[in-house]
Amino acid sequence: MVNVNTYAKVRDMIEARRLAAVGEADRRNAEVRLASPEIARIDDELSKTGLHLFRAALAGEDINPIRERNQALCRERENLLVSLGYPRDYTDVHYTCKKCNDTGFTETEMCSCMRKAIITENIKASGIGDLIEKQSFDNFNLESYRKDGEETYRRMNTVFLRAKTFAENFGKMHGNLLFVGPTGTGKTHLSTAVAKCVIDAGYSVIYDSTQNIISTFEDDKFHSGFGEAANESRKYLECDLLILDDLGTEYATPFAVSCLYNLLNTRHNKGLSTVISTNLSANELTKRYEDRIYSRIVGSDYLLLPFAGHDHRLSLS
Ligand SMILES: [Zn+2]
After folding, report:
1. Which of 11, 90, 124, 217 has the fewest CB atoms nearer than 10 Å to its CB?
2. Which residues lie below 8 Å from residue 84, measured CB to CB, with a gap of 6+?
């Protein structure tokens, strides 16, 4: 499953690449025909090959002589190009991707060039930026939690494994995560690692602070007219995975609360996954949010992962 907008954008980009390659070949063909009347004559004859083959096949004649003549003409054309100082393949179409000739698909599957472009596009749209290259499951330093005692280490080991399992099985099973814990205990690192893993599998991910998300909904509701501009917030409702960062730091207005509820509820109804991270404890969450939000989050919907440890940002080597 790939986000429709991303897919359309990448497909159009690859198609534009293909048209540019064909256009450039057309231009070069016109150029060499002008430079050499011989090449122009050969091209005229080659353009009739299809018709000749068709007629011969229809009449039940041997088509091999036509094929041989055709090959001889192509060789002659190449030699003429070289004698004029052009590269042998000057008038060929030079596609960016030789595997799919800039169509985005091989005979059996989506081409790797298209997969890569979708991933790049999803990283750009995710809002994570440079962090995505720096924070992964591979470089999460679990050992550093031993300093805070065996219990902390064991707890973080479980948190790490559960987050990794969630990310690696994304799309195969539905689920949501709730990262709870003090600042600096690795919530951002593991959120980014989840995002990277899910994006690499071809899914669209948005990573944003709760305050930003609410402000976007607010802008759409109060400040924009109808039409395109009013749809900035749709990405939060539609992305395959939403990572809602820093729940509890937003201004707790009635609008914010109903906005949060609608967001979580809509995603739940669509079967889309959400990862929430917060510095608030379960108790503080209850106090801050209405029952309907609290029960949605801490109810059976979300797997609670309690982070622990000292502030790891202060001891990064
Ligand atoms: Zn390709």
Report:
1. 124
2. 32, 35, 36
